[in-house]
Amino acid sequence: MGSRILIIEDEESIADLEKDYLEISGFSVEIEDDGRAGLERVLNEDFDLVILDLMLPGVDGFEICYKVREAKNTPIIIVSAKKDDIDKIRGLGLGADDYMTKPFSPSELVARVKAHLSRYERLIRSGSPENDIIEIRGLKIDKTARRVWINGEEKAFTSKEFELLTFLASNPNHVYSKEELFHNIWAQESVGDIATVTVHIKKIREKIEVSSSNPQYIETIWGVGYRFKV
């Protein structure tokens, strides 16, 4: 089902016309003909956009716009017979995203609805937290998605391989002993098991290094341990 739209409009013929055109375009549409009931629904339900008349029984459209904006960023399109610029300025000033004067073209309403939904979706995406990514000389580690690429080619990593690589890359130029790495990644003191680190480093190098014998990322510090070079 498409985006969910609430029409708050007390003129039944206009509300039905708007609903028909929007449903033909794939939207899910509901109607409220009372201002107070419409306001309650917008505040308590998840609508993707509101089409709002100004002259309503119960609570007028200006009040609805003000109350919704206090709580939500849901796009609001005012559709009103009020043609005066002062009403448009007031409506937009209260947080409405658009103002259409009756009579209007239903196809124009649909176009504006699509435009505002598209803009709102982009706004939501831009405001969402981005993935935590490390990029160093052709190596890309997406810590959020737990994925690794080398020169644009994705490589498959086991959980421990990924954690070991990410730990080293997150702490560049720091030399860690095998014991320290084992304790950090395997969460226990090493008791004759530090060879596990060596094996995992070898597997990681096979996946990210051009030459395992001359590594450009994970460097062996003889007699000490490993470090991630930047």
Q: Describe it for me?
A:
The protein is of the alpha/beta class. It has eight helices and twelve strands. The strands form three sheets. It has a five-stranded parallel beta sheet with strand order 2-1-3-4-5, sandwiched between helices. The protein has a four-stranded antiparallel beta sheet with strand order 6-7-8-9, with helices on one face. The chain has a three-stranded antiparallel beta sheet with strand order 10-12-11. Helix 2 packs parallel to helix 3 (61-71), helix 6 packs across helix 7 (178-186) and helix 7 (178-186) packs across helix 8. The chain is rod-shaped and about 80 Å long. The mean pLDDT is 89.
Which regions are unreliable across 5 or more consecutive residues at pLDDT < 50? none
Instruction: Trace the largest sheet across and list its strands.
Output: 2-1-3-4-5
Strand content: 15-25%
Mean pLDDT: 89
Elements, N to C (H/E):
EHEHEHEHEHEEEEHEHHEE
How many helices in DSSP terms? 8
The main β sheet shows up as:
5 strands, parallel
Radius of gyration: 29 Å
Distance between the termini: 49 Å
Apparent shape = rod-shaped
* Helix share, percent: 40-55%
Q: State the secondary-structure class.
A: alpha/beta
Q: Total number of β-strand segments?
A: 12
